[in-house]
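Problem: given the chain below (160 residues), write out its structure.
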Amino acid sequence: MFKEFLGLPLHPLVVHAAVTLIPLLALLGPVYALRARWRPKMDWAVGLLAVGAPVAAFAATQSGEALTDALVAKGYPQEALDEIYYHSQQGDWLFRFTIALSVVTLALLVVTSDHPKAPNSPSWVGRVLSVLVVVLAVPVLIYTFRAGHSGAETLWQNTF
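Solution.
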């Protein structure tokens, strides 16, 4: 399912969604957490990003694994496979941190919601979740860069 689309490897296509949605969540999530006045204008966008970013990260990791399996089957040199393995490790960490950021962001959305069915919680819960959103955004941005850079370096080094 995650191997190819229209005869092309799916991974390079899916990565574009991941490198767009994940950093947007890591940037807008903390803004939502820190700017209470802006929350009513941002809640829908942050909620969609909190759902879409981990889906994009999952698709990127799965399609990357399928691409790696195809390259191994084609007999790619071990040196290149070692670089791909490093890239996949960075992507795995990015996926984990994205899941954590998404869950905490969705919890913050629920806690700060004015919806009558939203559970009432002490005010400190919202503050703790806000801090967690800000803290988790940092490794998400770091691993977005590390995964993206290592993938680009693997593909494009010595090209120019």
